[in-house]
Amino acid sequence: MAKPKRKYVCTECGSVSHRWQGQCPDCAEWNTLVEEAPETKFAAKHDLSSGGRAIIFESLDMPTKPLARTTTGLAEFDRALGGGVVPGSAILMGGEPGIGKSTLLLQAAAAIARAGKDAVYVSGEEATGQVRMRAGRLGLADAPIRLAAATSVRDILTTLADGTPPALLVVDSIQTMHSDMIEGAPGTVSQVRASAFELIRYAKENGVALVLVGHVTKDGNIAGPRVLEHMVDVVMSFEGERSHQYRILRALKNRFGAVDEIGVFAMEGDGLAEVSNPSMLFLSGREEPVAGSAVFPALEGTRPVLVEIQALIVRLQSGATPRRSVVGWESSRLAMLLAVLESRCGLNFSSAEVYLNVAGGYRLSDPAADLAVAAALVSALADKPLPLRSVWFGEVSLSGEIRPVAHSNLRVKESAKLGFDQACGPADDGQSVAKLRYSGISGLMALVDRVMATA
Where is the RecA family profile domain (predicted)? Predict the structure, then answer.
């Protein structure tokens, strides 16, 4: 009998190599090749074109049952999911250790169980006593959750097959699960893929909402094979800084809803509390204007969130290379914006250190933040504060023009609701609302003139 060949699979791109290498030859990532158990090879007589069960094709205009959802009792969780969990769906939730994944799911399971539905929580990392201690600290000890500590997928599915399928099944975490059908230790590529496949198949066949907790790598990606994210229906990321109070639940993939909705929570002593007005977390409460500070109405799905952008300019006396430090925004975007300000407006940033920070630990990816960043930079350079109750938004092009952005009116209305009286954005791209005046800015030169004219 021929000796089976070893096969190494890249956890990032899925490429296959027959020998281990430190760097993947396809995606150039380091230390991502993991040995996979050899596959069973069939003889040539095993022809897959016969011997199977004939499938039935359907047309697109056939009547379909309306999508049913189960609310979790947490409005912010339901918002990120698109309205609640769908029976028979598989949800993968990733996040850094200690960010609050287990706490959030325990609170959601308790809310569903208290509503009269069956909820099962399987922990592969903690003993049942540890989970009960957390539940007692959160005030959830009276919730009728079925709790177990297990790592064998066969044991879990055998136990669940004896009774009525639950409404919610939480597995914490998928990297600790083990299938005896596959060789290898828990957490390997083959084990994670096989365990997830068996759990997802059970959920689909029995109409169970399945939530899998996933570990993340140092880069923030979910550990394990990339195919795991393709197998599930929803991929969620629980983000936040441990030094800050807020947590953001973001949908990266959602087959049953939008992927741009977020849920905002605040970590408190008795668990995660929902935040109905997240703008108050990211805005400072000062009453005096400060140079280098601009407020930007970011848009997360259908929810505007106002955040404060802070800039600091430090002039250098020597010929040292100036630093560019960015927290919460793309450093490449800052470099482009500084180049446009120097080239189109004649401002000198080359001999100064530039520090940019998004207050509250918030991370911005909206291109509409360009104008707010530019306003903060010009204000810090001129040492002239911007109007206290003003917001800034707009995308800056390489020519220095302010380009229109999506949902300008929604940003303006949310700013007016929070007490701001002035909004500055692209020309002819917004409208004034009650108690708020909209000012259009055509280019960066107009922005510089406006800031320099500020008293």
Answer: 66-216
Any known ligand binding at 96? yes
Q: Residues 396-425: pLDDT tens digits?
A: 999 999 999 988 888 888 888 888 889 999
| Strand ranges for 3-47 from DSSP E | 7-10, 16-17, 33-36
Show Cβ contacts of residue 431 under 8 Å, excluding neighbours closer than 6 positions: 409, 412, 438
Angle at CA of residue 451, ends 447 and 455, nearest 5°: 155
The dihedral of CA 100, 106, 112, 114: what is its sign? Answer: negative
* 99 in a labelled binding site: yes
Instruction: Please tell me whether 101 is known to bind a ligand.
Output: yes
3.30.56.10, 3.40.50.300, 1.10.10.10, 3.30.420.40: which CATH number matches 75-276? 3.40.50.300
- The CATH architecture that domain 281-452 belongs to is 2-Layer Sandwich (3.30)
The answer to the question of whether 95 is labelled as a binding residue is yes
**How many residues are there in the chain?**
455
Structural domain spans, the chain: 1-38, 75-276, 281-452
